[in-house]
Amino acid sequence: MHMAMVIGGGIVLLGLFLLFGKLWGETLPNIAWAAKVFVPVWLVIALVNMWVGVTKAGYSVRDELPILVIVFAIPAAIAAAAIWRLAR
User: Fold this and answer.
1) How many domains does the chain have?
2) Best label site of 7, 46, 71, 81, fewest CB within 10 Å?
3) What is the Cα–Cα distance from 61 to 30, expressed in whole angstroms?
4) CA-to-CA distance for 75 and 81, rounded, in angstroms?
5) Which uninterrupted H or E stretch holds 22?
6) Residue 81: burial class (beta carbons within 10 Å; 0-12, 13-18, 19+)
């Protein structure tokens, strides 16, 4: 359940990045740029989530690594699709 909530939070955060990209520039390249900025920010957040899982919840890095990949990949893939669609 926690993993789904983190992924959902990532999708909501991507939406906020896209919204601010639209508000600041109102052009498709500015919105695509906001999605590009989202990806490294989301990587940092996903790494912090992994760190919390290892240090606070007691999981090993080996246990948390597949979760990190899934938690990062789904919102990042949606961001990549948005970048691709906006660049057309």
Assistant:
1) 1
2) 81
3) 37
4) 10
5) helix 2-25
6) exposed
Q: Which residue has the tokens 């989202």?
A: 38
Per-residue pLDDT of 28-61, as tens digits, reads 888 999 999 999 999 999 999 999 999 998 899 9
| Contact predicate 18/82, CB 8 Å | yes
Given pLDDT bands bounded at 50, 70 and 90, which one contains residue 68? very high
Give residue 22's domain range: 2-87
CB 34 within 8 A of CB 20: yes
pLDDT over 90 percentage in the chain: 83
Hey, what are 52's tokens?
A: 């919390």
CB contact set of 43 (below 8 Å; sequence gap of 6+):
72, 76
Lookup: tokens for 16: 């906020």
**């961001």: which residue's tokens?**
79
